[in-house]
Amino acid sequence: MNKIQLIFEKGYETTKNNFVPQMDIDEIPLTELLTSDNLRTDEINIPDIPEFEIVRHFTNLSQKNYAVDSGIYPLGSCTMKYNPRINEKTARLPHFANIHPLQEENEGAIELIYNLGKDLCEICGMDAFTLNPAAGAQGELTGILIFKKYFEVRGEKKTKIIVPDSAHGTNPASSVMAGFDIIEIKSDENGELPLDQLEFAMQEGDVAGLMLTNPNTVGMFDRNILQITEIVHKYGGLCYYDGANLNPILGMCRPGDMGFDIIHLNLHKTFSTPHGGGGPGAGPVGVKADLIPYLPCPQVISTEKGLACMDNEETTIGRLRSFWGNFGVLVRAYTYILALGAEGLRRAGQNAVLNANYLRVSLHEKYAVPYDRICMHEFVIDAHLPNGVNAEDVAKALLDRKLYAPTSYFPLIVHEALMVEPTETENKRELDRFIEAMLEIYEETINNPEHLKSGPHNLDVGRLDATLAARKPHLKD
Q1: How many Å apart are CA 350 and CA 348, to the nearest integer?
Q2: What is the mean pLDDT of residues 170-185?
Q3: Are 273 and 329 in contact (CB under 8 A)?
Q4: Considering just the CA atoms, what is the radius of gyration of the chain in Å?
Q5: Please, what is the average pLDDT of the chain?
Q6: Does 75 map to a domain?
Q7: Residue 41 sits in the same domain as residue 181
Q8: Dihedral over alpha carbons 429, 432, 433, 438 (to 10 degrees)
Q9: Residues 220, 296 within the same domain
Q10: Which end of the chain is more exposed for a tag (fewer CB within 10 A), N or C?
Q11: For 314-390, where are the alpha helices, taking DSSP H only?
Q12: Same domain for 331 and 364?
């Protein structure tokens, strides 16, 4: 394996030459501008390296990092879909990009926020949205704080929230942060929520409601969803929709019509905004009409005199973030909705389902699929393979073949889980390339398993001790 050189190691041991022409104005000594305490005494450690090598260095580094622009990125649960370049163009329009954060009531920006909220209401079957939360996780916490505020105002003491074992890990975490205890209900053999156990749990009397992802984390649409929300409402609870998996049902059905009272969205998962890398995100939260007073402030409302900003100071859960959230992300999502329109969004959802089922059917003879019926956007493989080959081995073998690996070891209810989600982004050629690689890896489990267990072999870095790498990373060597 080749050691990656830092740009400092590529610098030449030569006298630094300055090719910038001398200025034709008088210099002002730095000592007249800064005190000696603020002046550097040692030499700046800048590598002496020509421009073309600098460009090559960073271009080569970028090519070592796999991205959704490089090829299929089938991370289940994460929806790593392509980010259209028109989104980037609109987000960089000067009158959007150059708004100062203190210009809170810029009319164009306020109109975009209002229109995006209306579109999300129509798509999700909700009555109002806040676009303030800065990420899906913060949006999720927002929804649970609305749960809490709703019952506090009503004078009801609710201390528990039901979370299925097929939920995203942030669901119980957000509930605990808001001060709730968790009741976990295990999925049945079909990957769905057992109605009898749900009703039994709701009878406890101090249950605020249910958090549910539908389709859930194993890619199954719960066929009993109307009965589920009916049971929760019968006992005075609220139904929370984790919108991480909204992508496959776009234009086909709406969480509000299923009986959900609150929803958060991950704009990167469904509406094509950038995902990951520590950058800005957005987690809009939608509610039914009776929960509007509890939304974070401020809210954009329509009045006879036009759009206005309103604070529900007496009932709101408060402000979650400075200004209006990550506005550039909202511009990107609005662009995506306008570019596709209603029919385009529906086709995106349909193609995501088609692609996932094409992969599932193509692989299920060699790889065990615990929930092997028509899935939505993703499905889960149980990679207990011949000769002790496991999910991690398959993931590393895919990296060796210049493909990104699916999500490994999640959801936890499948022990050797590989969760595969191709999204609507990929065409049949790219899907077939992934299928071919997976079938080739399966043959290798029989003919050369030790080679698989010691991979990857074709990358700059071999197999790491994952725990040690996370806790004590060596970022230089």
Answers
A1: 6
A2: 94
A3: yes
A4: 26
A5: 91
A6: no
A7: no
A8: 170
A9: yes
A10: C
A11: 327-363
A12: no
